[in-house]
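lol so apparently i was supposed to do this last week
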Amino acid sequence: MPAQHSILLVGESNVGKTHYGAQFLKRLMVESCALKRNGAATNLEAFTTALSSLADGKATDHTPASTYVESVWPIKDEAGRTAELVWPDYGGEQVRNLVKQRRIPAAWRERVLAATDWVVLLRLHSLRAEDDLFSRPLQVFTGPEIKEVTEYEPSDQARTIELLQMLLYLAQLNLDRKLRKPRLTVLLSCWDELETSELPEKLLAATLPMFWSFVRSNWESPTVMGLSALEKALSRTESNEEYAIRGPEEFGYVILPDGKKDKDITLPIQRLMAQPA
Ligand SMILES: Nc1nc2c(ncn2[C@@H]2O[C@H](COP(=O)(O)OP(=O)(O)O)[C@@H](O)[C@H]2O)c(=O)[nH]1
Ligand SMILES: [Mg+2]
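anyway here it is w/ guanosine-5'-diphosphate bound
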């Protein structure tokens, strides 16, 4: 039997992981996607809770885990290839803290080591596009108005790079050459908020140039796709009628690397499974 993919989905708090998982799960349940379930998943509570809110046309409350919890889903594709999808949940601000404090739960570390594929969710809309060395013209630094920097806080872009750096360090990878494994997919989540017709990769390169350059210098062939798990913003209190009538599985799409839009939000994972593990 060929080696199995172990696909790790990571991202900071509030990027849309739980809603993506809920929508993914619903697609698996109604079998309206390229993938199928292949056994019992563990720790589905957060996703099924989100799913019942979505069936009502509402977004779900953010309930951060206080400890490390992971949900593991066995899946298979149409060719019979199997994989496990791993959704780590480290609660609230833990990823930010991971980067700040450089501490990682042991169980997560093992997952990072074992993963054949990393899928990193980034929500560009909520990243602060503040000035840093890479966006501010150099003369600003040499001008007369230099203020004392009292507290150093890395930019959102730097913190995003740091997250990858930590994963790379944990996985004990040799960076002498560009990585083929683990494969890296960047999913630009909540794509609908961005109101763009740009290709995902171009948008990432333009918005986070330093991050994109870091990715390209470390990975052989990174993939960038857009993801809108919900297709539109939902309220937590007011029910969206269309959702309630048509069902959550009728909403959501991915933007493939070539810009094509597809309603099957499981495609980023299906594409990874089609490659050798
Ligand atoms: N507009 C829009 N909002 C989304 C989408 N997916 C999630 N959200 C919202 O983003 C917020 C965070 O989502 P959640 O899944 O809890 O993020 P997590 O902390 O990464 O698990 C929630 O308020 C969701 O309603 C999407 O595709 N489009
Ligand atoms: Mg969540």
